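Tokens as discussed.
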């Protein structure tokens, strides 16, 4: 359940899937359609009938048996029992008891199951090829004996040239442009990094991730130059929670190797930024990112939700977690039913898990809270079983604009809802709160010449009243709170335009100072509440820094404009979007809101909201901490 008290509304992140890429290809829809199952089946069959090629790149989670043909040790192969026995009834070289994610993608596409690219004999490359290799990294030095990314790229280029020779340039170009380029890279690089660098500093981690992503970006660009346009990326999984690593580090329960988790999160965040930037730079570049990290992590933490009985221990192997040695030693253990296990061996999901993960990849699956859209409290007949949203645009901690639902009113409404709920429900719920910005906007607009002392006094009043409200929610049963701090008010188009005559093109420092004061005081207040209130847990999202970086460095996040709003009038389109209060004022509207950080003078676009939602949900501690919202949901 997710009660929400705030002065604005965060838009939902757009769902993405391989199926949506195919729909765009077929020109069926201009955006992803979430349809009833009956119509989805018809549309999927239409997509399947196109026989779109898939080219697969990656490491062991995607390898169909390429390593069978490499001169490497047994640790880098899976061409022996019990691998493959659940489906194929013999070992194929897949690091799984049966089919893998790319196999299910092939099934969805009406393509045959994958043969290794290196397998001798004829191949129908017009349907694609699978170059993935167990142990392969983006970087050659991570494992030079495998088909690392540049080798896989080389083989792909050879296939592209062969298609041109066999089918002619025009047909080959069409196949390459329509194809899906599915990849899974990075995990091997980070495992190699941790094994060679003990206790890496945050700077070392960031520099290594930058190097991996930089090299991977070069691969993507070369595929694009060869003709690829539609990319599906599987991000790095929860490496530190795999049975192999938990066994290696002697961890139990919910504990994971945190440094690997942190590096995986860094990689995934940067991958998201880089691909968004590529989309803005490369004409026709389209992509989806499958959030393998959170999808698999959720299976590990809540196995029964997905039909599993065991998630911490692998089906096959030796040791406390069966984390190693599957089929590689004489006396390994093997479970009776791999379908009950998330992991088949210490580092690879079972076929059952892969079938679920592939459905997320293909059809799209939210890695957020999986709740229905939280309804407005005032909506007649609203279903409040998954939570309720009391937020009111323009409202504040104080009654700064009569007629709106200020904090005391929101709290009163919440108390009415809470009276019908068990305290246990409230203790499990997450309370999402964003307030203060409108209070400081009102104060600074009315008191532009206020002294620092007057601003401090007002800030103390705002945070003090907000703290009192939190205590009341806590007394009713609330224990898990998620806060979005106040954004960079002085850099919003509305404020810059309002004070343009005084500070042309500059952010208003008084607004920024007040926001910074608030955010520091809020952080201190939350730490104090955590010390004094038993069971009080919180997440604080640094909205200020995240939004300011997008304003100042728009292209870094795939935007073309960070200063001016998409909709409005004036120097920064800061006012009158939709015609202002009268509805009759002139305004302009951009052709593509996704190019803009701001939609109107004070509110971000859906695209910006989707990026910010990712950060508040699964951001690292220096962005969202000490917990992120996902972690709050996972707390008992």
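Sequence:
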């Amino acid at each position: 359940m997710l009660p929400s008290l705030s002065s604005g509304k965060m838009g939902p992140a757009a769902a993405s899937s391989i199926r949506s890429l195919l729909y765009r290809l077929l020109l069926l829809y201009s955006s992803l359609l979430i349809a009833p199952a009956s119509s989805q089946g018809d549309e999927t069959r239409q997509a399947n009938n196109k026989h779109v090629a898939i080219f697969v790149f990656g490491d062991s989670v995607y390898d169909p048996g390429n390593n069978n043909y490499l001169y490497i040790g047994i640790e880098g192969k899976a061409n022996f029992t019990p691998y493959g026995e659940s489906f194929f009834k013999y070992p194929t070289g897949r690091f799984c008891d049966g089919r893998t994610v790319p196999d299910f993608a092939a099934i969805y596409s009406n393509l045959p199951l994958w043969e290794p690219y290196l397998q001798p004999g004829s191949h129908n490359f017009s349907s694609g090829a699978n170059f993935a290799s167990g142990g392969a990294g983006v970087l050659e030095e991570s494992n030079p004996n495998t088909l690392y990314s540049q080798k896989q790229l080389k083989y792909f280029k050879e296939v592209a040239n062969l298609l041109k020779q066999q089918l002619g340039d025009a047909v080959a170009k069409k196949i390459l442009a329509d194809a899906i380029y599915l990849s899974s890279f990075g995990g091997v690089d980070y495992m190699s990094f941790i094994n060679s660098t003990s206790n890496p500093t945050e700077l070392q981690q960031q520099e290594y991730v930058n190097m991996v992503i930089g090299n991977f970006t070069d691969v993507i660009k070369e595929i694009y130059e060869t003709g690829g346009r539609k990319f599906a990326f599987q991000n790095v999984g929860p490496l530190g929670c795999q049975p192999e690593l938990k066994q290696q580090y002697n961890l139990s329960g919910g504990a994971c190797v945190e440094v690997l988790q942190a590096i995986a999160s860094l990689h995934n965040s940067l991958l998201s930024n880089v691909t968004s930037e590529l989309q803005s730079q490369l004409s026709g570049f389209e992509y989806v990112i499958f959030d393998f990290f959170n999808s698999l992590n959720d299976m590990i933490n809540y196995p029964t939700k997905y039909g599993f009985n065991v998630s911490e221990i692998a089906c096959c192997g030796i040791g406390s977690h069966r984390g190693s040695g599957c089929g590689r030693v004489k006396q390994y253990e093997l479970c009776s039913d791999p379908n009950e296990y998330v992991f088949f061996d210490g580092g690879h999901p079972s076929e059952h898990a892969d079938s679920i993960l592939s459905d997320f990849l293909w059809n799209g699956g939210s890695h957020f809270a999986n709740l229905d859209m939280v309804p407005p409290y005032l909506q007649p007949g609203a279903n409040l079983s998954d939570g309720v949203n009391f937020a009111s645009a323009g409202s504040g901690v104080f009654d700064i604009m009569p007629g709106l639902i200020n904090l005391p009113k929101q709290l009163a409404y919440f108390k009415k809802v809470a009276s019908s709920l068990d305290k246990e429900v409230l203790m499990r719920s997450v309370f999402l709160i964003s307030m203060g910005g409108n209070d400081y906007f009102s104060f600074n607009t009315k008191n532009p010449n206020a002294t620092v002392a007057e601003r401090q006094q007002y800030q103390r009043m705002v945070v003090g009243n907000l703290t009192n409200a939190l205590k009341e929610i806590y007394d009713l049963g609330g224990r898990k709170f998620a806060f979005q701090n106040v954004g960079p008010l002085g850099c919003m188009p509305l404020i810059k335009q309002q004070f343009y005559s005084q500070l042309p093109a500059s952010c208003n420092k008084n607004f920024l100072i007040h926001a910074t004061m608030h955010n520091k005081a809020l952080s201190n207040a939350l730490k104090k509440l955590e010390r004094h209130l038993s069971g009080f847990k919180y997440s604080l999202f640094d909205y200020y820094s995240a939004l300011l970086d997008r304003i100042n460095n728009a292209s870094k996040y795939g935007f073309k404009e960070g200063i001016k709003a998409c909709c409005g009038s004036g120097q920064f389109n800061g006012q009158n979007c939709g015609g202002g209060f009268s509805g009759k004022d002139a305004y302009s509207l951009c052709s593509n809101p996704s190019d803009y950080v701001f939609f109107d003078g004070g509110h971000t676009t859906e695209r910006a909201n989707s990026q910010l939602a990712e950060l508040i949900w699964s951001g690292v501690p220096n962005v969202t901490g000490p917990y992120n919202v996902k972690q709050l949901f996972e707390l008992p």
